[in-house]
Amino acid sequence: EKGGFEHFMLKEIYEQPKAVADTIHPRIKDGKIVIEELGLSDEDIRKISRIQMVACGSAYHVCAAAKYVLEKLSGIPVDIDLASEFRYRNPILSEHTLVVIVSQSGETADSLAALRESKKRGFPVLGIVNVVGSSIAREADSVFYTWAGPEISVATTKAYSTQLAAIYLIGILFGEVRECISREEADHYIQELLKLPEKIQRILDEKERIQWLANKFSHTKDVFFIGRGLDYAISMEGSLKLKEISYIHSEAYAAGELKHGTISLVENGVLVVGVATQQELFEKEISNLVEVKSRGASVLGLTSYGSYSMEDTADFTIYVPRTESCFATSLAVIPLQLLAYYISVARGLDVDKPRNLAKSVTVE
Ligand code: M6R
Fold first, then answer.
1. Which residues pair with 319 in a beta bridge?
2. pLDDT the model gives residue 79
3. In this structure, which residue's CA is closest to atom 16 in ligand 1?
4. Residue 277: which of 221, 336, 222, 218 has the closest Cα?
5. Model confidence over 97-120: pLDDT tens digits?
6. Ligand 1: nearest atom to the Cα of 57
7. Does residue 360 have a pLDDT over 90?
8. Average pLDDT over every residue of 80-105
9. Cβ burial 235-265 (10 Å sphere, 16+ → b, else e)
Protein backbone atom coordinates (compact mmCIF):
# COMPACT_ATOMS: atom_id res chain seq x y z
CA GLU A 1 0.00 0.00 0.00
CA LYS A 2 2.84 2.34 0.84
CA GLY A 3 4.68 1.12 -2.23
CA GLY A 4 7.83 0.23 -0.30
CA PHE A 5 8.02 3.59 1.51
CA GLU A 6 8.08 3.74 5.28
CA HIS A 7 5.28 6.30 5.43
CA PHE A 8 2.54 7.63 3.17
CA MET A 9 4.04 11.09 3.50
CA LEU A 10 7.33 10.02 1.93
CA LYS A 11 5.51 8.09 -0.78
CA GLU A 12 3.44 11.17 -1.55
CA ILE A 13 6.49 13.42 -1.56
CA TYR A 14 8.00 11.10 -4.16
CA GLU A 15 4.82 11.13 -6.24
CA GLN A 16 5.14 14.86 -6.82
CA PRO A 17 6.95 14.84 -10.17
CA LYS A 18 4.18 12.67 -11.62
CA ALA A 19 1.35 14.51 -9.85
CA VAL A 20 2.56 17.89 -11.14
CA ALA A 21 3.04 16.50 -14.66
CA ASP A 22 -0.44 14.93 -14.58
CA THR A 23 -1.94 18.27 -13.56
CA ILE A 24 -0.12 20.28 -16.21
CA HIS A 25 -0.12 18.06 -19.32
CA PRO A 26 -3.85 17.73 -20.02
CA ARG A 27 -4.14 21.53 -19.97
CA ILE A 28 -1.57 22.20 -22.67
CA LYS A 29 -2.78 21.76 -26.23
CA ASP A 30 -0.70 22.69 -29.27
CA GLY A 31 1.61 24.77 -27.12
CA LYS A 32 -1.22 26.79 -25.56
CA ILE A 33 -3.02 26.56 -22.26
CA VAL A 34 -6.59 25.37 -22.58
CA ILE A 35 -8.69 24.89 -19.44
CA GLU A 36 -12.16 24.16 -20.74
CA GLU A 37 -13.48 23.19 -17.30
CA LEU A 38 -13.20 26.81 -16.14
CA GLY A 39 -16.16 27.53 -18.38
CA LEU A 40 -14.79 31.02 -19.02
CA SER A 41 -14.68 32.57 -22.48
CA ASP A 42 -11.88 35.03 -23.36
CA GLU A 43 -14.46 37.74 -22.92
CA ASP A 44 -15.28 36.50 -19.40
CA ILE A 45 -11.57 36.39 -18.51
CA ARG A 46 -11.06 39.95 -19.74
CA LYS A 47 -13.93 41.15 -17.58
CA ILE A 48 -12.58 39.83 -14.26
CA SER A 49 -11.78 42.83 -12.08
CA ARG A 50 -10.54 41.00 -8.98
CA ILE A 51 -9.81 37.50 -7.75
CA GLN A 52 -10.80 36.59 -4.20
CA MET A 53 -9.05 33.43 -3.00
CA VAL A 54 -10.20 31.56 0.09
CA ALA A 55 -8.83 28.44 1.80
CA CYS A 56 -7.46 26.92 5.02
CA GLY A 57 -4.04 25.63 6.08
CA SER A 58 -1.68 24.65 3.31
CA ALA A 59 -4.29 25.46 0.69
CA TYR A 60 -4.25 28.99 2.10
CA HIS A 61 -0.48 29.04 1.63
CA VAL A 62 -1.10 28.26 -2.01
CA CYS A 63 -3.31 31.37 -2.07
CA ALA A 64 -0.48 33.36 -0.47
CA ALA A 65 1.83 32.31 -3.30
CA ALA A 66 -0.95 32.79 -5.85
CA LYS A 67 -1.28 36.43 -4.93
CA TYR A 68 2.25 37.11 -6.17
CA VAL A 69 2.01 34.79 -9.17
CA LEU A 70 -1.44 35.75 -10.48
CA GLU A 71 -0.88 39.46 -10.04
CA LYS A 72 2.41 39.24 -11.91
CA LEU A 73 1.20 37.02 -14.77
CA SER A 74 -2.37 38.25 -15.24
CA GLY A 75 -2.31 41.77 -13.85
CA ILE A 76 -5.53 41.06 -11.91
CA PRO A 77 -5.54 42.18 -8.25
CA VAL A 78 -5.81 39.21 -5.89
CA ASP A 79 -7.18 39.22 -2.34
CA ILE A 80 -6.67 36.24 -0.09
CA ASP A 81 -8.53 35.18 3.03
CA LEU A 82 -8.58 32.35 5.51
CA ALA A 83 -11.94 30.66 5.06
CA SER A 84 -12.73 30.87 8.79
CA GLU A 85 -12.28 34.65 8.62
CA PHE A 86 -13.88 35.27 5.24
CA ARG A 87 -17.17 33.60 6.10
CA TYR A 88 -17.85 35.87 9.07
CA ARG A 89 -16.38 39.16 8.01
CA ASN A 90 -19.00 40.28 5.55
CA PRO A 91 -16.49 40.71 2.73
CA ILE A 92 -16.98 43.49 0.20
CA LEU A 93 -16.80 41.96 -3.22
CA SER A 94 -16.87 44.21 -6.26
CA GLU A 95 -18.59 43.39 -9.52
CA HIS A 96 -16.80 40.86 -11.73
CA THR A 97 -14.95 39.30 -8.82
CA LEU A 98 -14.02 35.67 -9.37
CA VAL A 99 -14.01 33.71 -6.13
CA VAL A 100 -11.53 30.83 -6.00
CA ILE A 101 -11.76 28.20 -3.27
CA VAL A 102 -8.72 25.93 -2.91
CA SER A 103 -9.17 22.59 -1.15
CA GLN A 104 -7.56 19.17 -1.41
CA SER A 105 -10.41 17.29 0.22
CA GLY A 106 -13.22 19.49 -1.04
CA GLU A 107 -14.87 18.91 2.35
CA THR A 108 -13.31 21.54 4.63
CA ALA A 109 -16.24 23.05 6.54
CA ASP A 110 -15.06 26.67 6.53
CA SER A 111 -14.05 26.58 2.86
CA LEU A 112 -17.41 25.09 1.92
CA ALA A 113 -19.20 27.78 3.95
CA ALA A 114 -17.15 30.48 2.18
CA LEU A 115 -18.19 29.00 -1.15
CA ARG A 116 -21.86 29.05 -0.18
CA GLU A 117 -21.61 32.60 1.11
CA SER A 118 -20.04 33.77 -2.18
CA LYS A 119 -22.63 31.99 -4.28
CA LYS A 120 -25.44 33.43 -2.20
CA ARG A 121 -24.16 36.88 -3.09
CA GLY A 122 -24.11 35.95 -6.75
CA PHE A 123 -20.38 35.64 -7.38
CA PRO A 124 -19.06 32.89 -9.64
CA VAL A 125 -16.98 30.35 -7.73
CA LEU A 126 -14.13 28.32 -9.12
CA GLY A 127 -13.02 25.35 -7.01
CA ILE A 128 -9.46 24.05 -7.20
CA VAL A 129 -10.08 20.62 -5.74
CA ASN A 130 -8.39 17.23 -5.61
CA VAL A 131 -11.15 14.86 -4.55
CA VAL A 132 -13.51 14.21 -7.44
CA GLY A 133 -17.17 14.63 -6.58
CA SER A 134 -16.48 16.21 -3.15
CA SER A 135 -18.85 18.83 -1.74
CA ILE A 136 -16.82 21.84 -2.93
CA ALA A 137 -16.43 20.26 -6.36
CA ARG A 138 -20.17 19.68 -6.59
CA GLU A 139 -21.24 23.10 -5.41
CA ALA A 140 -18.72 25.31 -7.23
CA ASP A 141 -19.75 26.79 -10.58
CA SER A 142 -16.64 25.31 -12.14
CA VAL A 143 -13.92 22.95 -10.96
CA PHE A 144 -10.26 22.68 -11.78
CA TYR A 145 -9.21 19.22 -10.65
CA THR A 146 -5.66 18.77 -9.45
CA TRP A 147 -4.71 15.28 -10.49
CA ALA A 148 -2.64 14.46 -7.40
CA GLY A 149 -4.38 11.14 -6.71
CA PRO A 150 -5.44 10.09 -3.21
CA GLU A 151 -3.49 11.76 -0.43
CA ILE A 152 -3.45 9.76 2.82
CA SER A 153 -0.88 11.51 5.01
CA VAL A 154 -2.40 14.29 7.13
CA ALA A 155 0.43 16.60 6.11
CA THR A 156 -0.28 17.60 2.54
CA THR A 157 2.53 17.51 0.00
CA LYS A 158 1.52 16.45 -3.49
CA ALA A 159 -1.86 18.15 -3.31
CA TYR A 160 -0.14 21.42 -2.38
CA SER A 161 2.25 21.04 -5.33
CA THR A 162 -0.55 20.38 -7.80
CA GLN A 163 -2.54 23.34 -6.47
CA LEU A 164 0.46 25.55 -7.24
CA ALA A 165 0.61 24.06 -10.74
CA ALA A 166 -3.06 24.93 -11.20
CA ILE A 167 -2.30 28.53 -10.26
CA TYR A 168 0.54 28.75 -12.79
CA LEU A 169 -1.71 27.43 -15.57
CA ILE A 170 -4.52 29.83 -14.72
CA GLY A 171 -2.03 32.71 -14.41
CA ILE A 172 -0.48 32.12 -17.82
CA LEU A 173 -3.89 31.63 -19.45
CA PHE A 174 -5.38 34.80 -17.94
CA GLY A 175 -2.17 36.74 -18.61
CA GLU A 176 -2.12 35.88 -22.28
CA VAL A 177 -5.84 36.50 -22.83
CA ARG A 178 -5.58 39.87 -21.08
CA GLU A 179 -2.37 40.72 -22.92
CA CYS A 180 -0.43 41.15 -19.70
CA ILE A 181 2.11 38.74 -21.18
CA SER A 182 2.89 38.21 -24.87
CA ARG A 183 2.57 34.94 -26.78
CA GLU A 184 6.36 34.55 -26.62
CA GLU A 185 6.38 35.11 -22.87
CA ALA A 186 3.52 32.66 -22.41
CA ASP A 187 5.45 30.13 -24.44
CA HIS A 188 8.53 30.64 -22.32
CA TYR A 189 6.53 30.17 -19.11
CA ILE A 190 4.95 27.00 -20.50
CA GLN A 191 8.37 25.58 -21.36
CA GLU A 192 9.60 26.32 -17.83
CA LEU A 193 6.45 24.78 -16.37
CA LEU A 194 7.04 21.58 -18.28
CA LYS A 195 10.51 21.31 -16.76
CA LEU A 196 9.26 21.46 -13.15
CA PRO A 197 8.60 17.70 -12.66
CA GLU A 198 12.14 16.80 -13.67
CA LYS A 199 13.58 19.52 -11.41
CA ILE A 200 11.50 18.28 -8.48
CA GLN A 201 12.87 14.81 -9.15
CA ARG A 202 16.42 16.16 -9.05
CA ILE A 203 15.80 17.59 -5.56
CA LEU A 204 14.36 14.27 -4.40
CA ASP A 205 17.48 12.52 -5.69
CA GLU A 206 19.54 14.60 -3.26
CA LYS A 207 17.49 13.76 -0.18
CA GLU A 208 20.46 12.43 1.85
CA ARG A 209 21.72 15.90 2.57
CA ILE A 210 18.33 16.99 3.93
CA GLN A 211 18.19 13.82 5.99
CA TRP A 212 21.58 14.69 7.45
CA LEU A 213 20.43 18.24 8.28
CA ALA A 214 17.21 16.91 9.79
CA ASN A 215 19.15 14.69 12.17
CA LYS A 216 21.35 17.60 13.11
CA PHE A 217 18.43 19.89 13.95
CA SER A 218 15.93 17.37 15.32
CA HIS A 219 16.35 18.65 18.90
CA THR A 220 15.89 22.31 18.09
CA LYS A 221 13.19 24.04 20.15
CA ASP A 222 12.38 27.10 18.04
CA VAL A 223 12.56 27.56 14.31
CA PHE A 224 11.84 30.66 12.23
CA PHE A 225 11.30 30.47 8.50
CA ILE A 226 11.91 33.80 6.86
CA GLY A 227 11.62 35.05 3.30
CA ARG A 228 10.49 37.95 1.15
CA GLY A 229 7.88 37.92 -1.59
CA LEU A 230 7.17 34.40 -2.77
CA ASP A 231 9.81 33.15 -0.36
CA TYR A 232 7.60 34.38 2.46
CA ALA A 233 4.73 32.29 1.08
CA ILE A 234 7.01 29.23 0.97
CA SER A 235 8.16 29.98 4.51
CA MET A 236 4.58 29.73 5.76
CA GLU A 237 4.22 26.30 4.23
CA GLY A 238 7.62 25.10 5.49
CA SER A 239 6.80 26.28 8.99
CA LEU A 240 3.36 24.63 9.07
CA LYS A 241 4.77 21.37 7.74
CA LEU A 242 7.43 21.30 10.44
CA LYS A 243 5.20 22.13 13.40
CA GLU A 244 2.43 19.84 12.19
CA ILE A 245 4.45 16.63 12.23
CA SER A 246 7.51 17.35 14.43
CA TYR A 247 5.77 19.33 17.22
CA ILE A 248 8.65 21.81 17.17
CA HIS A 249 7.58 25.40 17.68
CA SER A 250 8.06 27.28 14.42
CA GLU A 251 6.94 30.52 12.86
CA ALA A 252 7.08 32.05 9.44
CA TYR A 253 7.94 35.70 9.06
CA ALA A 254 8.30 38.13 6.23
CA ALA A 255 12.03 38.73 6.64
CA GLY A 256 11.66 42.51 6.71
CA GLU A 257 9.13 42.31 9.53
CA LEU A 258 11.41 40.56 12.04
CA LYS A 259 12.86 43.74 13.42
CA HIS A 260 9.39 44.96 14.34
CA GLY A 261 9.27 42.68 17.36
CA THR A 262 10.03 39.05 16.69
CA ILE A 263 13.78 39.39 16.51
CA SER A 264 13.78 39.72 20.30
CA LEU A 265 13.15 35.96 20.39
CA VAL A 266 16.30 35.18 18.43
CA GLU A 267 19.14 33.83 20.57
CA ASN A 268 21.59 30.94 20.73
CA GLY A 269 19.95 27.66 19.84
CA VAL A 270 17.29 29.13 17.56
CA LEU A 271 17.29 27.88 13.97
CA VAL A 272 16.46 30.35 11.21
CA VAL A 273 15.67 28.90 7.80
CA GLY A 274 16.27 31.67 5.28
CA VAL A 275 14.51 31.11 1.96
CA ALA A 276 16.01 33.16 -0.88
CA THR A 277 14.99 32.05 -4.35
CA GLN A 278 13.88 35.49 -5.55
CA GLN A 279 16.91 37.07 -7.19
CA GLU A 280 15.79 40.68 -6.86
CA LEU A 281 15.29 40.25 -3.09
CA PHE A 282 18.38 38.15 -2.43
CA GLU A 283 20.60 40.83 -0.91
CA LYS A 284 17.80 42.11 1.33
CA GLU A 285 17.22 38.59 2.61
CA ILE A 286 20.93 38.09 3.25
CA SER A 287 21.06 41.24 5.37
CA ASN A 288 18.24 39.82 7.53
CA LEU A 289 20.15 36.57 7.90
CA VAL A 290 23.26 38.49 8.99
CA GLU A 291 21.14 40.15 11.68
CA VAL A 292 19.78 36.89 13.11
CA LYS A 293 23.17 35.25 12.95
CA SER A 294 24.78 38.02 14.93
CA ARG A 295 22.17 37.33 17.63
CA GLY A 296 23.22 33.71 17.92
CA ALA A 297 20.86 31.87 15.54
CA SER A 298 22.02 29.00 13.37
CA VAL A 299 21.22 29.82 9.76
CA LEU A 300 20.07 27.29 7.20
CA GLY A 301 19.92 28.95 3.77
CA LEU A 302 17.69 27.69 0.98
CA THR A 303 18.42 29.18 -2.42
CA SER A 304 18.97 28.35 -6.09
CA TYR A 305 22.13 26.94 -7.66
CA GLY A 306 24.34 29.84 -8.62
CA SER A 307 23.56 31.97 -5.56
CA TYR A 308 26.65 30.64 -3.81
CA SER A 309 27.24 33.79 -1.78
CA MET A 310 24.57 32.40 0.57
CA GLU A 311 27.43 30.37 2.06
CA ASP A 312 29.13 33.55 3.31
CA THR A 313 26.28 33.96 5.80
CA ALA A 314 24.50 30.64 6.25
CA ASP A 315 25.94 27.85 8.37
CA PHE A 316 24.42 25.32 5.99
CA THR A 317 22.97 25.80 2.53
CA ILE A 318 20.47 23.82 0.47
CA TYR A 319 20.35 24.47 -3.28
CA VAL A 320 17.46 23.86 -5.64
CA PRO A 321 17.53 24.09 -9.46
CA ARG A 322 16.85 27.44 -11.05
CA THR A 323 13.48 28.19 -12.61
CA GLU A 324 11.32 31.21 -13.45
CA SER A 325 11.15 33.19 -10.21
CA CYS A 326 7.35 32.90 -10.02
CA PHE A 327 7.57 29.08 -10.09
CA ALA A 328 10.31 28.84 -7.43
CA THR A 329 7.83 27.88 -4.70
CA SER A 330 7.35 24.51 -6.38
CA LEU A 331 11.03 23.69 -5.95
CA ALA A 332 11.84 25.32 -2.61
CA VAL A 333 8.97 23.55 -0.89
CA ILE A 334 10.43 20.10 -1.59
CA PRO A 335 13.45 20.32 0.76
CA LEU A 336 11.18 21.86 3.40
CA GLN A 337 8.79 18.90 3.16
CA LEU A 338 11.73 16.50 3.42
CA LEU A 339 13.17 18.43 6.36
CA ALA A 340 9.88 18.22 8.28
CA TYR A 341 9.51 14.56 7.37
CA TYR A 342 12.98 13.48 8.48
CA ILE A 343 12.82 15.54 11.68
CA SER A 344 9.53 13.84 12.57
CA VAL A 345 11.10 10.44 11.85
CA ALA A 346 14.19 11.32 13.91
CA ARG A 347 11.93 12.24 16.83
CA GLY A 348 10.10 8.93 16.54
CA LEU A 349 6.69 10.50 15.90
CA ASP A 350 3.64 9.29 14.04
CA VAL A 351 4.43 11.04 10.77
CA ASP A 352 1.25 10.22 8.87
CA LYS A 353 -1.15 10.82 11.76
CA PRO A 354 0.07 13.69 13.92
CA ARG A 355 -1.69 14.22 17.22
CA ASN A 356 -4.87 16.33 17.40
CA LEU A 357 -5.24 16.54 13.61
CA ALA A 358 -7.60 15.11 11.01
CA LYS A 359 -6.97 14.80 7.29
CA SER A 360 -10.07 16.72 6.49
CA VAL A 361 -11.54 19.28 8.87
CA THR A 362 -15.28 18.94 8.46
CA VAL A 363 -16.20 20.86 11.61
CA GLU A 364 -15.59 24.57 12.06
O1 M6R B 1 -8.64 19.62 2.32
P2 M6R B 1 -8.20 21.06 2.41
O3 M6R B 1 -7.18 21.39 1.38
O4 M6R B 1 -9.35 22.02 2.39
O5 M6R B 1 -7.51 21.17 3.83
C6 M6R B 1 -7.02 22.39 4.31
C7 M6R B 1 -6.12 22.20 5.50
O8 M6R B 1 -6.82 21.54 6.54
C9 M6R B 1 -4.87 21.39 5.16
O10 M6R B 1 -4.14 21.99 4.12
C11 M6R B 1 -3.94 21.28 6.39
O12 M6R B 1 -3.43 22.51 6.73
C13 M6R B 1 -2.83 20.27 6.12
N14 M6R B 1 -2.87 19.20 7.08
C15 M6R B 1 -1.45 20.85 6.14
O16 M6R B 1 -0.48 19.89 5.86
1. 303
2. 97
3. 155
4. 336
5. 999 999 999 999 999 999 999 999
6. 12
7. no
8. 94
9. bbbbbbbbbbbbebebebbbbbebeeeebee
Q: Which residues pair with 316 in a beta bridge?
A: 300
Q: Is the ipTM of this complex over 0.85?
A: yes
What is the residue with the minimal CA distance to atom 8 of ligand 1? 57
58 CA → ligand 1 middle, Å: 5
pLDDT at 152 over 90: yes
- Residue 363 pLDDT > 90: no
Q: Of 362, 251, 349, 363, whose CA–CA distance to 9 is shortest?
A: 349
Q: How far is the CA of 339 from the centre of ligand 1 (A)?
A: 19
359 is catalytic: yes
pLDDT, the chain, mean: 97
pLDDT of residue 358: 87
Residue 244 has pLDDT above 90, yes or no: yes
CA gyration radius, the chain: 20
User: Residue 138 contacts by C-beta under 8 Å, 6 or more apart in sequence?
Assistant: none
